[in-house]
């Protein structure tokens, strides 16, 4: 099991796979996409919510594994096509381990070196149905499964849980907007590698330039458009410090 290079060029391609920019050796893609194979590949897995394109099918097949409010799946207000997984019971968590565990194993089979598990903070959007302990119990199982498959595992966001997730076996961090929200040190204090994505509609180009001059920023930090579109789209932005 290997970690990403400490200061490697990073690209975050969740909006669609494409040829990485020059100098990039770490690429993250969705689990349904093939690895970029330019160095170190990270597989994105939504471990606590459905993906938008899968929500209807998942709700039909596994309604008992979703948080329900008045009989309907609870949606993430920030991502209204994503439904929250119900992590509140040991039985539900065991069922999710089987489903998500297959996705994690699939990442290893596809040739990825690591997996990033998103939305461990779904409890904060659950209308108090879920607790932090519910989600961390499942997060620990995901770490066990990833390591058993030979994969490193990345914490995604949730700065306030960095100490506990690191103790559970998480190996590095993939963060969004840690400069914008002044959270980077929470990850850097725990992990040898932090890969940070800042966004044009938050930190902006000038803010990113200023952050690059600050020696405290994560060594692998990029600026992307918020929709993470591919280079063919006029809204595409990609910058690394020094470019």
Q: Classify the secondary structure makeup into a structural class.
A: alpha/beta
Q: Write down the overall mean pLDDT.
A: 96
Radius of gyration: 17 Å
Major β-sheet annotation: 9 strands, mixed
Query: How many distinct helices?
Result: 6
Strand content range? 15-25%
Query: What's the order of the H and E elements?
Result: EEEHEEEEHEHEHEHEHEE
Strand order of the largest sheet: 1-2-3-8-9-10-11-12-13
Name the shape in a single word: globular
Q: Which residue ranges are poorly predicted, with pLDDT under 50 across at least 5 consecutive positions? A: none
Write the SSE topology.
Elements (H helix, E strand, L loop, with lengths): L8 E4 L11 E7 L9 E7 L8 H7 L6 E2 L2 E2 L1 E2 L2 E5 L6 H21 L3 E5 L13 H17 L3 E5 L5 H6 L4 E5 L7 H5 L5 E6 L4 H10 L6 E5 L13 E3 L3
Structure, described:
With 243 residues, the protein is of the alpha/beta class. It has helices at 55-61, 90-110, 132-148, 162-167, 184-188, 204-213, and strands at residues 9-12, 24-30, 40-46, 68-69, 72-73, 75-76, 79-83, 114-118, 152-156, 172-176, 194-199, 220-224, 238-240. The strands form 3 sheets. A 9-stranded mixed β-sheet has the order 1-2-3-8-9-10-11-12-13. It is globular.
């Amino acid at each position: 099991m290997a970690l990403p290079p400490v200061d490697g060029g990073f690209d975050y391609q969740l909006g669609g796979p494409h040829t990485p920019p020059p100098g990039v050796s770490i690429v993250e893609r969705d689990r349904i996409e093939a690895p970029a194979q330019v160095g170190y590949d990270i597989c994105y897995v939504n471990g606590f919510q459905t993906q938008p394109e899968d929500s209807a099918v998942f709700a039909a097949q596994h309604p008992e594994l979703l948080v329900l409010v008045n009989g309907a799946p609870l949606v993430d207000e920030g991502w209204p096509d994503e439904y929250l997984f119900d992590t509140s019971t040991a039985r539900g968590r065991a069922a999710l381990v089987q489903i998500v565990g297959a996705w994690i194993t699939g990442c290893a089979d596809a040739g990825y070196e690591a997996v990033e598990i998103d939305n461990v903070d779904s409890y904060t959007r659950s209308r108090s149905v879920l607790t932090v302990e519910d989600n961390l119990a499942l997060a620990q199982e995901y770490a066990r499964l990833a390591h058993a498959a030979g994969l490193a595992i990345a914490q995604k966001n949730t700065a306030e849980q960095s100490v506990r997730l690191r103790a559970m076996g998480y190996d590095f961090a993939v963060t969004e907007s840690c400069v914008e929200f002044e959270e980077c040190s929470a990850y850097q204090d725990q992990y040898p590698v932090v890969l940070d994505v800042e966004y044009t509609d938050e930190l902006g180009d000038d803010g990113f330039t200023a952050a690059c001059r600050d020696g405290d920023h994560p060594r692998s930090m990029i600026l992307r458009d918020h929709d993470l579109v591919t280079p063919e789209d006029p809204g595409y932005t990609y910058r690394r410090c020094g470019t």
